[in-house]
Design a protein that fits this description.
265 residues, alpha/beta, 7-stranded mixed sheet, 9 helices, rod-shaped
């Protein structure tokens, strides 16, 4: 027992304050119509003390609507049938360290809520009619209890709908040389390389001196040179001198790099 709080010190290190057990006794009291559920959680900034966060009436629906955000919580509820259920809930934005501690403390806290028939998977917005599955996949038989009250859950229970897979984020272009090439250029790159090699082979016998190619107006009318592929009219030795590589190596370069090379010369 913690001498500061009077709580029950569990082996896991959690300290369940006395108010949790006394409030749960009120929930189980048939004469107390003002409280049929409770939610417990960390007491302020304490990492071990568990106290009452919320309590009230209205069953599962009211309890699920009061689930705290950004933290782990524990709780119990009386059903309309007179049975009792417990739960352990971790909000989506709960800090990672708190999730770990709360998982270790769960049994210690829920053991305080005596008389529960089953632990349920409590969710925000849940109502009593949603109680369909036990932990492990079995159906929860919570329709009747020792109080002799008529069953309140008698219709077949629908299975939980599977979650839809999250859509994958669209890919983005990395910040490197590849970003300078458009998506279309990247897809057609291999075709461009093959076409460049083929063009080199077709134009292999037509050679024009480099100084003449720099100004196509000096070419004789009988000489036909494609202004977009003037480099193909150079002889192999002169091509290697001008570009620093042979024609096959030049053709294997990406389109944007070939264009840049031609601008340099």
């Amino acid at each position: 027992t913690d001498p500061r709080s009077g709580g029950v010190k569990k082996s896991s290190g959690v300290n369940v304050l006395p108010i949790v057990a006394s409030t749960w006794a009120d929930v189980r009291d048939d004469k107390r119509l003002d409280v049929d559920w409770l939610i417990a959680g960390y007491d302020g900034t304490s990492k071990t003390d568990i106290t009452i966060l919320h309590k009230g009436s209205g069953g599962i629906g009211a309890c699920s609507a009061a689930l705290p955000e950004g933290m782990a919580s524990f709780g119990g509820c009386r059903l309309s049938s007179g049975r009792f259920v417990s739960f352990f809930h971790v909000a989506d934005d709960t800090p990672v360290m708190q999730k770990g501690r709360a998982s270790m403390y769960k049994n210690g806290v829920l053991n305080t809520l005596e008389g529960c028939d089953v632990e349920i998977d409590m969710k925000p917005g849940m109502v009593e009619g949603d109680l369909s599955l036990l932990k492990g996949g079995g159906h929860a038989d919570v329709s009747s209890g020792s109080s002799g009250k008529p069953p309140s859950i008698s219709k077949p229970l629908n299975p939980r709908q599977p979650k839809q897979p999250k859509s994958k984020p669209k890919p983005t272009i990395g910040q490197n040389e590849a970003a300078e090439i458009s998506m279309t250029d990247a897809k057609d790159e291999s075709k461009n390389i093959e076409a460049g090699v083929e063009s080199l082979q077709i134009s292999e016998g037509e050679f024009v001196p480099y100084p003449t190619l720099r100004n196509t107006r000096d070419l004789p009318p009988t000489c036909s040179v494609d202004p977009t592929k003037k480099e193909l009219s150079l002889s192999d030795p002169e091509f290697a001198t001008v570009f620093g590589m042979d024609k096959a190596a030049f053709a294997s370069l990406p389109t944007w790099k070939r264009t840049a090379k031609k601008k340099e010369v």
